[in-house]
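Workshop exercise sheet. Pairs work together: one partner reads the sequence aloud, the other fills in the structure field after running the prediction. Swap roles for the next sheet.
Pair: D.N. / O.F.
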Amino acid sequence: MTDRPNRPFVRSAVTAVKILVVVGGLVVIAAVSAWLTVRRAVSGRDVQVPDLAGLTGPEAEKALRDQGLALDLTTERYDPRIPAGQVLSQEPSPGSRIKADRKVRVVVSLGEKGSSVPELRGSAARTAQIALQQQGYRVGDLLYAYSPRSEENLVIGQDPMPGGGGAKDARVSLLVSRGRRPATYVMPNLVGHPQQDALRWMAKAGLRPAPVRRDPRSTVAAGTIVAQRPEAGWPVRSGDLVTLTIAGEDSDHE
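Structure field:
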């Protein structure tokens, strides 16, 4: 048999391959184990908690993020010593060492608690603004709305409502009356009517006449309206201007 002398060689080759496979597997296992060990060491490393006192919320969040930590805003509290918006306290305390990716709980100051919010409804808008400033508040949004029951420029609403306590320098928004909503009319067709008739109707509707225009080339009787703006059919409100074009030359009776 010619293949008998080759059997020892074949067995040696197979053994060598098995050894290589085992060694390779051990190398892979060692590499994976080393990678996991490094990863655990990195992710589980201790970091120092920074001092957040005096920082605003966004500043504190950035300082923690730079250290691999996260911010947890637990609550807000009045404090006359710390300006509103700044960190009042933190847990864990500055200098402590904790694992990365952990949260640091903070309390943010609302500033000094001011006096109760005054009753502003019924006051003139300017008077209300002065009253707020005198009591340490600031005017927030200043909104306007028509009101059938309140005169123009009177405060008809506020937020927060009167009587509640608030932070000093907090904002109070005001809703101010514009008075009654102007009456709305559909503009009639004044063309062909005498100027004086049109002016009487406009006065009743609360419309204001703009300077009169003249059309000396018109063939209708002098003083007759030949054009108008707004045109007939347009909506108009009390106080709007109406421009009339009158036939004829300028005269002294206007």
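Discussion prompt: Helices lie at 7-43, 57-66, 125-134, 195-205. What would you look at next?
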